[in-house]
Structure formats: structure tokens, C-alpha cells
Write a structure and sequence with these properties.
It is an enzyme of class 5 (isomerase). By secondary structure, the protein is an alpha+beta fold. It has helices spanning about 30-40, 45-50, 90-100, 190-205, 255-265; strands at about 1-10, 15-20, 60-65, 75-80, 115-120, 120-130, 135-140, 145-155, 160-165, 170-175, 220-225, 235-240, 245, 275-280, 285-295, 300-305, 310-320. The structure holds pyrrole-2-carboxylate.
Length: about 325
């Protein structure tokens, strides 16, 4: 049996985005969060087949468009990547919206604004389009907040660390320069890939974050190594680890949101200030705190993140059950 997926491939700030424009399964659920659970239960082979080798690679991520469930939303988005289906993905949204507009999968709104329903909630998107090309997308993201502070861990290879956990659509362990971590220039990519899962496991042993309003959003998934910027005009730099072997090539939209919540909590970033976040490869997102809010009784921010995506081609991908690697593999 051969399944065919029509994909629009590209990247946002260097990180891959595969928009699956044809071949999406019909999902059950009254919102994108329930559809995410249904996809994971019944169709996870599509994610692993499209994201893992030999059709994908360690950084592969993307998503599907669905009709929205919620009144007032224009489109629903389901994200896929190597580690699962994220509740929210910033670079993914920027890419998906860019490619969907450029290929006519969604019609440009006269207002230049789109409201999208994602598993983590609803987000507002504004964009600039010139001659059929989307030149920038800004996401006003879900409410972001600091979930835990000062978790003490001791990790082989880097020693004692104090970690804060913040949410920006996914939960991030934030590693600020301290002790033997003096900055990203002192770590090789291979050291980041070795140390990050150890840090994530050590934090997981002590703390399981659960979203205060949506218990289906739970668990620490990412590690954000924070540092001072390298390039002129940037506010900060990061290396974001996700899945089992990925360093985000983009500055990470949900990571940037989590980091802005973290800095706001420390009194180091104010509403309206621009936060230019540089990635591991020095690509950039421009973040901003739009407003302060509350998540239940927890202080939170509404962050926005702006970036640009580029379409690299169209890709018809087959997943054929006679292929021994139809579900993909990871080494
Ligand atoms: O941009 O939010 C993001 C993201 C999550 C994982 C990789 N990128």
C-alpha cells in the first residue's frame, strides 16, 4: 500500500519546515489539542515516516493545515517533528503560513491577519506580502510564563547548574552562563548534543511542568542554552536542543517566547521592547512582549515573534508499506 504526501519544503531562519499540503488524515476531536492526541494514537507513522530518515533527518519538522474547530479561527495547524507533535512551534508556524499563502492554500486576508488554532491554543498572525512572496510573519503567541526557578542539578561533563523552566508553547530548561558553562563559544555542537539530554533528564527527575489551564500540555521537552549575542544589534543568542539529536537552526519561536517570559520575570525585559534573538547559526527572530497577563494566578506575558521563511521546493513523498523503512528510523 502506497501513501502519497504532497509536501512544500523550506526553512524558517535555517530550520526545516515541511508543510504537508496533501495526504493529511481525517482526525477526530473538538479542538486541535484533541486532534493532536488522535493523530498520535492512530497516525504517528505519518510523522515518523516523514520526519525520520530516510525521508527526513534529525531536525525535520513541519505540519498540516486543518479547518479550525473554534469559531473566529481561520485555520488549524497540527505540528509534526522528530520528537512528536509539539503543542506549538514558532518556526513551523512562520514557515507553514508563508508556504500556505504563497501556494494559495489559504487566501490572503485583506487585513494581513490570520487567527490560527494550534494544540496549545489560539495565536494571531500578521504578515507582509509583496508580489506573491511573504517577506515576514509575526506570531502573537500563547501566554508564556516561568514555571520553576532554581532547580539544582549536577550533570556529568558540566557540573552543578541552577536551571529555570519557562513555557512559550513548549517547556524549556533554561541554562544561563554559570559555573563551567561560560558561553556557547566554549561548547561544540557535539557537546551540546551530549549534555542537553542529560540536563533534561536531571530536571525531569525533579520537576514535571503542567500547563495551569490545559493539563494535556505537560513535560519538559527542550533545553535552551542562553548566551550574549555574537552579531551587531542582537539582544541575545541561544542554542535550543529538541528531540534526541537536534539543535534548532532558527532562534526557536517558542524558545524565544519562553526566554522573554524568563527575562520579564527577572525585570530585564519590558513590554514593547524589541528582543532580537540569534540562533546557533546566527539567524534571527525579532521578539517583543505585547502585554502582561495572568495564566490563572501566575503572571505571564503575551509574546510576539517575527521571522522569515523560504520555500526550497515541492516534494512528493511516498510511504509504501512494502518498504522496510516505511515508518522511518533513527540511529
Ligand atoms: O520554533 O518553536 C519553535 C521550535 C520548536 C522546536 C523547534 N523549533
Amino acid at each position: 500500500m502506497r501513501h502519497t504526501f504532497f509536501c512544500i519544503d523550506g526553512h524558517t531562519a535555517g530550520n526545516p519546515v515541511r508543510l504537508v499540503a496533501g495526504g493529511a488524515p481525517l482526525l477526530k476531536g473538538a479542538n486541535m489539542s484533541e486532534r493532536r492526541q488522535d493523530f498520535l494514537a492512530r497516525f504517528d507513522w505519518i510523522r515518523t515516516g516523514l520526519c525520520f530518515e530516510p525521508r527526513g533527518h534529525d531536525m525535520m519538522s513541519g505540519g498540516f493545515l486543518y479547518p479550525p474547530c473554534k469559531e473566529g479561527s481561520d485555520v488549524g495547524i497540527l505540528f509534526i517533528e522528530t520528537s512528536g507533535c509539539l503543542p506549538m512551534c514558532g518556526h513551523g508556524t512562520i514557515g507553514i503560513i508563508t508556504f500556505a499563502l504563497e501556494h494559495g492554500l489559504i487566501s490572503p486576508a485583506q487585513t494581513g491577519r490570520i487567527r490560527a488554532e494550534v494544540p496549545a491554543g489560539e495565536i494571531d498572525i500578521s504578515y507582509e506580502m509583496e508580489n506573491g512572496r511573504v517577506t515576514s510573519v509575526r506570531i502573537t503567541n500563547v501566554a508564556s510564563y516561568v514555571a520553576a526557578k532554581g532547580i539544582k542539578i549536577d550533570v556529568e561533563g558540566i557540573g552543578p547548574l541552577s536551571i529555570d523552566v519557562a513555557y512559550g508553547g513548549n517547556y524549556y530548561a533554561i541554562v544561563e552562563p554559570q559555573g563551567r558553562y561560560t558561553g556557547l563559544d566554549d561548547l561544540t555542537a557535539s557537546e551540546i548534543l551530549t549534555l542537553s539530554p542529560k540536563i533534561r533528564s536531571a530536571v525531569r527527575e525533579q520537576f514535571t511542568p503542567v500547563h495551569p489551564l490545559d493539563p494535556t500540555i505537560t513535560g519538559l521537552s527542550h533545553v535552551l542554552w542562553a548566551d550574549v549575542p555574537k552579531g551587531d544589534g542582537a539582544s541575545a543568542r541561544n542554542a535550543v536542543f529538541y528531540g534526541d539529536k537536534a539543535i534548532d537552526r532558527s532562534p526557536c519561536g517558542t524558545g524565544t517566547s519562553a526566554r522573554m517570559a524568563h527575562l520579564a520575570d527577572k525585570g530585564l525585559l519590558d513590554t514593547g521592547e524589541s528582543f532580537v534573538h540569534e540562533s546557533y547559526i546566527q539567524s534571527r527572530f525579532i521578539g517583543r512582549i505585547e502585554e502582561k497577563t495572568m495564566l490563572g494566578d501566575i503572571p505571564a506575558i503575551i509574546p510576539s515573534v517575527e521571522g522569515t521563511a523560504y520555500n526550497t521546493g515541492l516534494n512528493t513523498v511516498w510511504i509504501d508499506s512494502s518498504d522496510p523503512f516505511w515508518k522511518g528510523f533513527q540511529v
